[in-house]
Write a structure and sequence with these properties.
This protein is an alpha+beta fold and 333 residues long. It is built from seven helices and 18 strands. It has a six-stranded mixed β-sheet with strand order 7-18-13-8-10-9. Strands 1-14-17 form a three-stranded mixed β-sheet. A hairpin with a 2-residue loop joins strand 9 and strand 10. Helix 1 packs across helix 3. It is flat and about 85 Å long. The N and C termini lie far apart (75 Å).
Length: 333
């Protein structure tokens, strides 16, 4: 019996771990609003945990004492570390040889190719799912709780840092509310949490309901007319405007009918603070990735018996954090 093993379409270099990982990382990138804003500093790590080191130095007034008297003892701030586990996000699909046999590419007379099917029907959709999940985790880091797809809490930053959320009621239901004063109060709360760090700018990500109510408020309408800064955000941002040095932008992310930012809420975010928001990518759980710097995305395949196809796997191992949770101010309507 003649063997066709060496002629199998699945024995090509397309299905090596290096090739698949390279393909999924080079695929066209469709960012979410958080990714487009570049708030999170990305970096690979060689472990499955990311650590944040804190030092609780605080300002103290120095008393005046008599010359020659014993000086008060200065005690340096204590250092402590927090460790956060990388999430393990993984998807798997199967590409069968018979699934592309005699099948035309959509809208053409050409037969499907292995490369096109692999890239367009498997790697690209899995990549988009992983990117959407990372976006979901990032909005969670901004809000203070990173949630799993099931709604369970992966990381509670308030509990980990031992602090509570700061919030301002903007009182949009009252026509006489001085919105500019509310914005300044919120900025001062954030600045108090940041200490000496000075933001280069401010953005507030708003639920659609909050955005509409704010834009329609009598004290804001004059500011919002004709102003647009959507270029800094992704193309599908409906609108944005500036009040009190803050860019207010509608955030439209949702999953299964649940908005990433609940109705009537917005989050004021200082920009330009180094390491305020970080993303760390841990290595995949593959032998060739052990103790190497993590990549944003990995892909690998496993051949089915008799070369009838391949199982394809894509994964990412991110942890997304806000290192000063109280610097993000929750705004309510």
């Amino acid at each position: 019996i003649a063997t066709m093993a060496n002629e199998s379409i699945f024995s090509t270099d397309l299905f090596t771990a290096e090739s698949l990982t390279g393909s999924i990382n080079k695929a066209p990138y469709v960012p979410g609003q958080i990714a487009a804003l570049k708030l999170f500093e990305e970096e690979g790590i060689a472990t499955t945990k990311a650590s944040i080191e804190l030092k609780n130095n605080t300002l103290q007034l120095v008393p005046s004492i008599g010359r020659g008297a014993p000086a008060p003892v200065f005690r340096p701030g204590q250092r402590e570390g927090l460790s956060f586990e990388c999430a393990h996000l993984i998807q798997r699909s199967t590409l069968l040889a018979d699934s592309i046999q005699d099948v035309r590419e959509f809208g053409t007379t050409e037969l499907k190719t292995l490369q096109g099917t692999l890239d367009n029907d498997h790697l690209a959709p899995m990549r988009l799912n992983l990117e959407a999940t990372i976006e979901f985790h990032r909005i969670g880091a901004i809000k203070g709780q990173i949630l799993d797809a099931s709604g369970g809490v992966l990381i509670d930053l308030w509990s980990e840092f031992g602090v509570s959320q700061q919030s301002i009621d903007v009182d949009l239901d009252t026509a006489t509310t001085k919105i500019i004063n509310k914005i300044m109060a919120a900025k001062r709360l954030a600045e108090g949490a940041l200490g000496a760090a000075k933001p280069s700018g401010w953005i507030a990500l708003c639920s659609p309901a909050f955005f509409d109510a704010l834009q329609g408020h009598p004290s804001v309408e004059n500011f919002s007319v004709g102003w647009a800064a959507a270029a800094m955000l992704r193309d599908d941002v409906r609108d944005s405007f500036s009040v009190g040095g803050v860019t207010f932008a509608e955030y439209r992310g949702s999953y299964n009918g649940t908005d990433f930012i609940p109705a009537g809420e917005a989050y004021l975010i200082p920009q330009g603070i180094p390491k305020l928001f970080i993303t760390r990518f841990g290595p995949a759980d593959y032998a060739e990735a052990v103790n190497t710097l993590g990549l944003p995305l990995y892909a690998k395949s496993h051949m089915l018996p008799f070369n009838r196809g391949a199982m394809i796997e894509a994964q990412s191992n991110p942890v997304n954090l806000c290192s000063i949770p109280r610097a993000v101010i929750k705004l309510t309507a």
